[in-house]
Amino acid sequence: QLQLQESGPGLVKPSETLSLTCTVSSGSIGRSTYYWGWIRQPPGKGLEWIGSVYYRGNTYYSPSLKTRVSISLDTSNNQFSLHLGSVTAADTAIYYCARQREILYFGEISSPGYFDYWGRGTLVTVSS
Amino acid sequence: DIQLTQSPSSLSASVGDRITITCRATQGISNYLAWYQQKPGKVPELLIYATYTLQSGVPSRFSGSGAGTDFALTISSLQPEDVATYYCQNYNSAPLTFGGGTKVELK
Predict the structure, then answer these.
(1) pLDDT per position as a tens digit, A20-53
(2) Looking at beta carbons, which residues of chain A come within 8 Å of B98?
(3) CB distance A46–B100 less than 8 Å?
(4) Quick one: CA dihedral B104, A120, A112, A100, positive or negative?
């Protein structure tokens, strides 16, 4: 059974960079047909997609976060990471990592799809 | 970006009731729609993808329908364990988007 586990600081100061790592077990992140994504959920609110990375390193980001976010793969450690810069209190949320199925449009254009396995989530609070 | 509007935002129903949640997209997304269930204090779980395909292990009382811009999630006979918030998600090319959620409670 595939498992994902988020790790990183639970408290980040305003204007600093939020950095989280997702460790994947019982499955290789270097395998095609999957993307690896980050989603967040402010306390008591809905889900927001942050971005996704393909096994080849191609990335897709939410337009609203694009200028501040970076997602990368570390295939040697079977991990992928999220970096979100210049954080404010509005970035306080539970952050989830998840596996995504690859969607092929017209049989050849690859894009991130739905999320079929999720990590347990980690609460990150932005506060001084 | 494609926006998803779910309705209602919350509902209260009795055990055994048939309930339907709708999800409307601001433009056509073919059948690239998924539904998730998030029980209180828990991680979201995939229920349905490609509009109507049940994820493995999901009870058959859940069903999905629709195409284009209008979609629905139906629970044919509401059970106590179905108390949760339900989200739709568009994956018809990035940026991916979620609906605002529908909270389902028991009367």
Answers:
(1) 999 999 988 987 789 999 999 999 999 999 999 9
(2) 46-49
(3) yes
(4) negative
